[in-house]
Predict the structure.
Amino acid sequence: MGKKDIDWGNLRFSYMKTDQRYVSNYKDGEWDQGRMTEDANVVMSECAGVLQYSQSCFEGLKAYTTEDGRIITFRPDLNAERMENSAISLQMPVFPKKRFLDAVDQVIAANVAYLPPYGFGATFYLRPYMFGSNPVIGVKPADEYQFRIFGIPVGPYFQGGAKPITVKICDYDRAAPHGTGHIKVGLNYAMSLYTMSLGHEKVYEEKMYLDAATRTKVEESGGANFLFVTKDNLIVTPKSNTILPSITRRSAMYLAKSYLGLETEEREIYVEELEEFEECGLCGTATVIAPVGKIVDHGREICLPSGMEKMGPITKKLYDTLTGIQFGTLEAPQGWIHEIKVK
Ligand SMILES: *Cc1c(COP(=O)(O)O)cnc(C)c1O
């Protein structure tokens, strides 16, 4: 199939209208059959539950073109399962896992012309999401919902690719104890827009949120989990009930252990101990593993020994292993890669 005339090497992480998207509606207690549509607009009541009380959740995953031209997704079952948890937490109906996986494949197959070829580091980002669509004015869950998936070709999330970034410890909290920090919902992002605007930060800078209860422990950034490397090459990641369980981070931890023979640990990480780490990375589907070179704690600057020029050696190994699997050059653990057959 022919490809669109796109500058694959210079894609950003931004929206582009592609040809087809998937949509399914929930009404009278059940999901309809679902279909592909060319219509990129959503029309709904001015009083829709999502517009009034933010009843919505989403996912993010990528499709990759391998060197030998196969099209694959990376652990899409985990996205389906996580969306199920998000939906349940916000009193939304679950979109069945099997149908979720099938819809992802349909969107990829219908937009093959937008799938970046191998070799540009570019990918096809899929955005499944669901929202309450019927009028809701007294606070309660909606009765009707829409589930959609669109896909867009994307380049690296951070301009400059693998260059280390600076993160700032944030004075605002992302998620309350026993709140919604563990689910993937837009409402966790809305508040971060204000903190992003503070001090006219450069776009590549990310926030480090602390635990809201004590403000002494590392949580995550707005849209990615942290991992740290100790002097003894131990990979450490924050243990917390109020962070989103990143599939990238969980995968990286597994690969560190089983592919690279490194020890890993999930535990509480205190701001006080940040100085002791050798390397730091941000993990997410969009970011992959972005190296952090510096952490700014108000007046105090914590410079990671790996520096501001390139990825630390362990982060680099993890990055290469993960992306090797995602682009099909390294053999994946059983069940991690799903191939989409395109006619
Ligand atoms: C999506 C997301 C992540 C990254 O999760 P992945 O599954 O690795 O993409 C991390 N934190 C938050 C808050 C997120 O929404």
About this structure: The first helix runs from residue 49 to 53. The chain is about 20% helix and 25% strand.
